[in-house]
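Forwarding these from the shared drive since the link keeps breaking.
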Amino acid sequence: MCIRDSLKYRKGPRDDWYARYLITFTFTQAVDILLWTLHRDTQPYPPTYGGLQSCPDLQLQFGKFPAADHPQAHNFYISKFVLPIVVFSQHAMQLTYPSSINASNRSRMIAWRILPCAVMMFAFGCTWLVPSPYDHLHTQAADKAVYADLDGSRTLHWGGDFTHHRMAEYLCLDWIPGFKYSPVCREHLPSHLSENISDTSYAVFTWFVVQIFALLHSGIVALDFVRVMPSRMATVHLVVLAGVVGSLAYADSTIQLGSKWCTYCLVYSFVYCSDPLWYPVLCAADDKQAPPPKTSTAEAALPNKQVRAGLRQRSVIGSAPRTRIHATCDQASP
C-alpha cells in the first residue's frame, strides 16, 4: 500500500498506471486475509473439524448454492464470485496501460476478459487449505484437525478441490447431463487400455490438465502485456511474469495456487519503484519509436514548431479584418 501511494505521488509518466495496477494485487491480499479469518472462525461441524472446507458438489456449476446458515456459505460466495471479479479487475487495469498501441480496441479487449473470469466463476466452489509444497494426491479426508499452526505448511487453494481424485471424477464428465463416455476418463476406457495405465501415470495426467488451465491464464496476462505495451516494456513485464510463474512452480510443484501467484506478483512493486533506474537503460528506445502526435497536413509540411506556430498566429490575425468588414457591410445595408 505504501509503495502504491508513493508511486501515485511520484508523478512519473507511468507511475499512475503502476499504482492502479498494484492496487488490484492489494485486493487479492485483502480477500486472502478475509479467507484466513473465516478459517480461524469456522467452528467444527459434522462431519468436519471446522475451518475452510472445499465444496466439491458446488464446483463446475451455477445453479446450486449453500444454505444461508451453512458454515461454508461465506467461503462459497467469496470464492465463487468475489475472487473472479478481483481477477477481472487485474485484467482490466492491465489493459489501461498508457500507450497508443491498440488504443481503439481497449474497451473490446477488456470486455473479452469477462469470458475467462466467467469460466473461473463456473469452476470455483469453496476455498480450502492444501499442503505446501502442493501434494496432488492429498485428500481432505486425510486431515484430522483444523490447521492452526500457521507455519507455512498449508496454503490457500482458491475455488475448491482440484486434486487427483477429484479431477479423475471431473474428467469422466458425469457432471454434464447426458454424457456417457469421456476419452480421458480411465473408467470409460476399454479394459485392455485402462489396465496399461498406472495410477502414477494417471495422477501425472490429471496434474498436467490443471497446469494447462493455469498456463492459459498466465498466457492471457502475457498476451495483454504484448498487445498494449511497446516491445521493450512488454519484454520487461514478460520476464518478471516468467519469474513469478517459475518461482511458484519450483517452490510448490504447481502453478495453480492463485493466492501465492498474486503474492509473488508483488515483486512488480519493486520493479515499478526502480523504474527511473532501469527504464532509461532498457526501454528508452520505445519512446523514440512511439507514433508522433497527429498534425494537419499543412503543419506537418513545415520545417519546425516555430514556423507552424507563426502560421497559426497569422491565420488568427488575418481573420480579424474580414470579420470587421462583414460587420460594416451588414450595418450599411438598408
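-- next protein --
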Amino acid sequence: ALCSFCVTKAFSQMKLAVFCRQALLALALPSSSVVVATDEAMEVTLSVDDECAASSQVAPGSSACALNALQLQARKASTAAASTPEPSSAADDADEGTDAVNEGSSIMPVAKGDATGVPIQDLGADELDRVQAQAEEEREERELQNELFPANTSTIDGVATAMSVSSLCATRPWKGGPGSSKCFCELAQNSGCSNSGCSCPQGCLGITWNHPSTVTFKNKARAHGCSPSTVLLTSPRSYFRDTNDLKQAWGGSCMVGVLTSLLLDSWNTYQTTVAAKPVWQCFHSPRIASVSYLHIQTFCFEGDFHGMPTGNPNVAYCVKMSSASEAEKKAQEMAHKLR
C-alpha cells in the first residue's frame, strides 16, 4: 500500500509538471507557426517528446510516447511550411499568361481556302488549286462585265496617237539622272541608254506593255480604297525630266501631243489589263516627283494613291477619265493646269 501511494504521488507530480510546462508554452507562444518560423531554440524544444522525458517509465524518443497538443500543432505547421511552394513572381505569371495567349492565337481553325498574306511559294497543293479557281472566276466575271459594258479603247477620231507627237518631241534622248531614272529610260528604250544594259532590280524583259510612243508598266505600290488596287505607270519613249521639262521643251509645242499619248495609252492598258472603269490620271508635282523621268500614274477613280487625287498643284496634277474619246480634251485640261 505504501509503494502504491508513492507511485500515485509521483505520477501526479509528473502530470502537474507537464501541465504547468504546457501552460507556460501556450502563454509564451500564442501561435506555434510563429515559433517555428522565428525561434529555432523553441523549435528544438517542441521536437522533444517532453511527456516521455518526464517519465522514467518510457524511454525518451520512444514511439510509444504520445506528443502533447502543442507539439502536434507545431509539427503540423512546420510540415506545411516545408511543403508549400514559393509563390511565383509577377513576371513569371505574366510570362505564363503571354505563353497562353501566344499559343491560343497561333492555334486557330481557318477556312480551307484562306491563304491571306501567304507567299505563293508557301501554298500547299489544295491552296494553289483554290487560288487558281478564284482567279479564273474573277477573270470570267470581268470578261462578262467587259462584254456588257465594253471599254472605249479606240483611237481619237480614227487617227493613231503616234501621229500626234512630232518627230522632234518623240526623239529626245535621256541625259542622265539620279535614282530610278535610268531604269525608266531602259524600259522606255530611249536612245540615251540604249547600250547600258538593264539596271532595273526586277529586270527589263516582260515588264512593259509597249505602245508606239509610250510604255506602260505596273507600279509596285498599290492604291487604297478600291479593288483592284493596281497602279499603272506610263512614260513617253522620248525623255522629259518632269512636267516642267515637258512644258518648256520646244517652246511647249510637245505638251498636248505627249499628254494625249500618255492619257490614251494608259487608259487603254488599264481597261484591258486591270478593269473596265473610270480612272484618275495624275502627275506628281516636280517638287516631289521621286523619279526624274516623266510618268503618269493611273489608278481607280474611287481610290487614292500617294496623296492623289488632289487640287493642290504643289502635290500633283490630276484629271478624271471615263472614256478614250476624252483623251485629247483631258490633255488640254492637263496642259492648262501645268501652265
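The longest helix spans residues 2-28. The mean pLDDT is 76.

- D.
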